[in-house]
Amino acid sequence: PSTDFYSETCRLGWNRASWCIKRFDLEYWAFHKGERTLILIDDDPERIGVFLDYEAGILSFYNVTDGMVHLHTFCCKFTEPLYPALRLWEGRRGLRMPKALV
Q1: Domains and CATH numbers, the chain
Q2: CA-CA distance, 20 to 9, in Å (whole number)?
Q3: Mean pLDDT along residues 62-67
Q4: Could you cite one Gene Ontology molecular function of this protein (predicted)?
């Protein structure tokens, strides 16, 4: 069966089972269940750190480029295992993954 990668069920942050930070142009947004929150950032992160406290229901993102600056925290009750996901994208073309990562 084929998968529609543009459907809301497959997009990170657009369903109840995923949380994400996205960068659009020069703005950063937090997404969950299709709802978005603007994140005000002074310095564009080169590295983003993720902190998870499963039992407490906390998923936090930090700018860890130079020190540790809080970006956003999601709070909820996790009921299933969590897995990290990463989406690389550059405009309409997308990015090619190196063969070593495929």
Answers
A1: 19-95 (2.60.120.920)
A2: 14
A3: 92
A4: zinc ion binding
Angstrom distance (rounded) from CA 98 to CA 21: 23
Q: What does the pLDDT look like over 69-89, one tens digit per residue? A: 999 999 999 999 988 887 766
Q: Quote the pTM value.
A: 0.76
Which residues are CB-neighbours of 31 under 8 A, at least 6 positions away?
Answer: 12, 13, 14, 19, 20, 21, 22
- CA-to-CA distance for 21 and 19, rounded, in angstroms? 7
DSSP assignment of 29-94 equals EEEETTEEEEE--SS--SSEEEEEETTTTEEEEEE-SSS-EEEEEEE----S----------TTT-
**How many residues make up the chain in this entry?**
102
Residue 53 CB contacts under 8 Å (≥ 6 apart), including other chains: none
